[in-house]
Amino acid sequence: MPVGEECGLRGSHGIYECPCGQHVFTLPDGHTKISPGVVRKADAALAACDEER
Questions:
Q1: In 19-30, which positions are buried (b, 16+ CB within 10 angstroms) versus exposed (e)?
Q2: Given pLDDT bands bounded at 50, 70 and 90, which one contains residue 8?
Q3: Which of 13, 32, 41, 50 is buried most, with the most CB atoms less than 10 Å from its CB?
Q4: Quick one: pLDDT at residue 53?
Q5: In which domain, by residue range, is 23 found?
Q6: Cβ neighbours of residue 47 closer than 8 Å, sequence gap 6 or more
Q7: Half-sphere exposure of 16 (CA within 13 A, CB side)
Q8: Residue 25 falls in which region: left (phi positive, over 0), alpha (psi -120 to 50) or beta
Q9: Alpha-carbon distances, residue 28 vs 1, 6, 25, 51, 53 (angstroms)
Q10: CA 4 to chain CA mean position, Å
Q11: Is the CB of residue 24 less than 8 Å from the CB of residue 1?
Q12: How many separate domains does the chain show?
């Protein structure tokens, strides 16, 4: 999987997978706040994982 600028990310981001490993999302590192849209994307990835179990 490409990381960093190869996949359009700028700055420092952590790349995470849901417990089943089929859903991937990124979270910015070093920020004191995360935007609501980023939280929604992470929540959606984890919810999709729960639905597939």
A1: eeeebebbeeee
A2: low
A3: 13
A4: 64
A5: 4-52
A6: none
A7: 17
A8: beta
A9: 17, 16, 10, 26, 28
A10: 13
A11: yes
A12: 1
Is-above-0.85 flag for pTM?
no
DSSP state of 13: E
Q: Dihedral sign, CA of 34, 37, 41, 44?
A: positive
How is residue 7 written in tokens?
A: 């996949």
* Tens digit of each residue's pLDDT (9 = 90 or more) over 26-52: 888 877 888 999 899 889 888 888 776
Higher pLDDT, 17 or 8: 17
Give CA–CA dist 24/12, Å, rounded: 16
